[in-house]
Amino acid sequence: MQTLPSPPVRPSLRLLIALPVIVSALGFFVDVYDMLIFSIVRVPSLQSLGLSEREVSRAGTFILNCQQAGLVVGGILWGVLGDRHGRMSVLFGSIVTYSLTNLACGFVQDVNTYALLRFVAGVGLSGEIGAAMVLVSEILPKEIRGYGSSIVAGIGYLGAGVAYLTVEYFNWRTAFWVGGGLGLALLLLRVSVFESGLFSRMKTDHQGIGRGNFLYFFSSWPQTIKYIRFVAVGVPTWFIVGILATFANEFGQALGIADMVKPGRCVMMIYVGLAGGDLLSGPLSQWLKSRLKAITGLLLFSLMLSTVYLFGGISTASGIYTVCLLAGFCTGYIAMFLTTVAESYGTNQRNTATTSVPSVVRGMLIPMTLFFQALKPTMGALVAAGLLGALVYGLAFWSLSSIDETFEKEMDFVEE
């Protein structure tokens, strides 16, 4: 009598509460807090330095762009180090860098020092999310990998809410000190986290292969296009956060809203929404058995809500905050987006890709803000942001149409 094969055994969901997953989630929580704190305190901190309303807008853009430039530099630096020396080296080094710098931000007295410190903070902040996602993706079985990434991102994005509440109850300098202190405290938990088994095995089995080469992504036209497509898919997230939320006070004025729209509250609402969206995106991709379908669906709703935000005739500050919450939820595809990046590259280039892509995405806020500021005087804030949004979302959907599906893909391979 022929014996039927036994059905595959599904991995236990208890693996999702393993120490590396929890510590990675808490690390991303602190990372989001420290990365968003400037957007939240931008106006009050610069006003306390004696800047006028017009100077606050210009100086705020300059400082934010310095931070974003640091994210690009750090994304490449930490990505390369993670593939050459291990995921844990990045998680330790990056958190020390941004924690100490955020402590220093609490003492600034002028714009130039502020900008320099935010650049260094950006360098440190860029290492956390990529290395955390790679570590979790490599230690979890492929059948539940999506759930793990969602937990890391879902818990991590709540850091923005805590940052906002800290500013509500304390002054902006204290908010920076709290962020730096949280980061240093996290180092105590990091000591107990072990290195990725895939990385350790790759070092042993492929000793002669190149690791952590950023230029590899531009070594041929197909590789270049592949990398650019991943960046383009992520850019709408920073259109939502860096444009719609950060300059929400200007959009409120353009819409004729009587009450003052607080950018900090908009940032908080978007990131609370992001937390919910990312917690959903993992189960959604498991149900659809597709990373790309989950990302596409959320991105479509994000586009719709961005349009409502700018051209839906919102007449109250509470209406802006509500749309920000919903837009954040629908932009919560970052967990699946970064998981797709990690699954698309071999172990010897995985950390470089997964760390540098989101950092380049963040860096794209620089041309976006320049585009927005250049068009705003002649077209107005709403039309300028609308044109920018059409470009950003158009490129994202074009890119999604040609990215390979990676659902439950094996990750034990290398790039030759």
Fold blueprint:
Blueprint: H1 19-48, H2 53-85, H3 87-105, H4 111-139, H5 145-156, H6 158-169, H7 172-190, H8 197-205, H9 221-245, H10 248-254, H11 263-288, H12 291-311, H13 317-330, H14 334-344, H15 350-363, H16 365-379, H17 381-400
3D structure, described in words:
The structure is a single chain. With 416 residues, the chain is mostly helical. The chain has one domain (18-191, 214-400): MFS general substrate transporter like domains (Growth Hormone, Chain: A). The protein is built from 17 helices and no strands. The chain is globular and about 60 Å long.
Number of helices: 17
Q: How big a fraction of the residues is strand?
A: under 5%
- How many strand units? 0
User: Shape, please?
Assistant: globular
CATH topology: Growth Hormone, Chain: A
Order of helices and strands: HHHHHHHHHHHHHHHHH
Find the CATH superfamily. Answer: MFS general substrate transporter like domains
What count of domains describes the coordinates? 1
Q: What structural category arises from helix and sheet content?
A: mainly alpha
Give the helix proportion (percent range): over 70%
Second-tier CATH architecture: Up-down Bundle
Biggest sheet: strands, sense, closure? none
- Could you tell me how far the N terminus lies from the C terminus, measured between alpha carbons in angstroms? 46 Å
Low-confidence stretches: none
Mean pLDDT: 86
Rg from Cα:
21 Å
- Determine and state the CATH class: Mainly Alpha
